[in-house]
Write a structure and sequence with these properties.
Helices cover 57% and strands 10% of the residues. By secondary structure, it is α+β, with helices and mostly antiparallel strands. The chain has 2 domains: 98 residues, no CATH class; 205 residues, MetI-like (MetI-like fold), CATH 1.10.3720.10. Strands 4-3-2-1-5 form a 5-stranded antiparallel β-sheet. Strand 2 and strand 3 form a beta hairpin. The longest helix has 37 residues.
């Protein structure tokens, strides 16, 4: 079998030898799969994992409670929409301490921390369509539920919130990096290739934008566009293009002096073709490395915005938002409510930084 000696294949072989790079890439692949199948994996598959049980709020990991499921009569939902966005009308769950069966009804006593009989409620047999007799209700509608990561201050399943919250972190990275690449590569390539007054004007814009603190600029753009999911994506993307543009400009200034670019000009190729087919493909290595770092930076910025309350808005789960809701619990004896999402953010950011380091070593021609 003939071996290929292209730069991309050599770089890939070097990347595969980097243990931390491969582990981080594997971790990232797992995170992407979890984000795609979040509602399938989450114990609470309601929209935004927003099933609240106030009686069991702030419970520690591994907490178990008996749950009565009360079915909700709604029209059939689109299965594809439910897969990606959760069930809009999911069944209601009620934590209980005990129950009693009467003639045609079920009487339950809601959960109380001290084990005493809580609030009494009665449900008729007609509310449970799968049970023909009252005696069938406990078997089909009452079950023990375990909260692996415990519950938050509203009694929502923390594991479900974490699984769905990973979508925000990954999405902000992808969208923000895409926007920064489109703007940064375009302006950097134009400035580096044409030079002169156009280069000076673009560099002036870059320097002005660079001088403004990133978080302050993001907050300003977010407030201008309004609070929300997509507004944060656009705001972060519009602040991360500067570094990309500077690097691309420098690479283009260097590459356009090469003989193959001079030959392309002599052959009469258009500037567009020379830039896209000859210059940019040979100037993208540093941009790829910067993109990995920008991905990590975007996740941190989004987490900070959510912590400040101008990121993803409740009840949409966001790791930064979960920390915001529970940071006071660090001194109230339940630090895990803030530490768990903190560790998740740290792990994802570290993975992208390690991938960036591995890419830097793999694309280093001197290696």
């Amino acid at each position: 079998m003939k071996k290929t000696n292209s730069l991309s294949s050599v770089a890939f072989q070097k990347f595969k030898k980097n243990l931390w790079g491969m582990l981080s890439l594997s971790f990232l692949v797992v995170c992407v799969l979890v984000a795609i199948f979040a509602y399938t994996l989450a114990p609470d598959d309601s929209k935004n994992a927003n099933q609240m049980h106030l009686s069991i709020h702030s419970k520690s990991p591994g907490f178990t409670s008996e749950m009565l499921t009360i079915p909700v009569k709604v029209a059939n939902e689109n299965s594809i929409a439910s897969f990606f966005f959760g069930n809009k009308n999911s069944d209601t769950e009620v934590p209980i301490n005990s129950y009693e069966l009467t003639g045609k009804s079920l009487t339950i006593f809601e959960y109380t921390p001290d084990g005493t009989k809580g609030l009494q409620k009665e449900y008729m047999l007609s509310q449970f369509p799968k049970a023909k007799l009252v005696q069938e209700i406990p078997k089909k509608y009452i079950a023990k539920k375990k909260f692996l990561l415990g519950t938050d201050k509203y009694g929502r399943d923390l594991l479900s919130r974490m699984l769905i919250g990973i979508r925000i972190s990954l999405a902000i990275g992808f969208v923000a990096v895409f926007i920064s690449l489109v703007i940064g590569i375009t302006l950097g390539a134009i400035a580096g290739f044409y030079g002169g007054k156009l280069d000076a004007a673009i560099m002036w814009v870059i320097n002005v934008t660079w001088s403004i603190p990133t978080l302050l600029l993001v907050i300003a753009i977010t407030l201008a566009l309004g609070k929300g999911f997509w507004q944060v994506f656009i705001a972060v993307g519009l602040t991360m293009w500067v570094e990309v543009a500077r690097v691309v400009r420098g690479q283009v200034l260097s590459v356009k002096q090469m003989q193959y670019v001079t030959a392309a000009k002599a052959l009469g190729y258009t500037n567009w073709r020379i830039i896209t087919k000859h210059i940019l493909p040979n100037a993208m290595a540093p941009v790829i490395i910067i993109s990995a770092a920008n991905f990590a930076g975007a996740i941190l910025i989004e987490s900070g915005l959510s912590f400040l309350g101008i990121g993803a808005q409740p009840p949409m789960p966001s790791w930064g938002g979960i920390i915001k809701d529970h940071y006071s619990y660090i001194i109230l004896g339940k630090p895990y409510l803030a530490i768990i999402p903190g560790i998740a953010i740290m792990s994802l950011v570290t993975a992208f930084m390690l991938i960036g380091n591995a890419l830097r070593d793999a694309l280093d021609v001197r290696g």
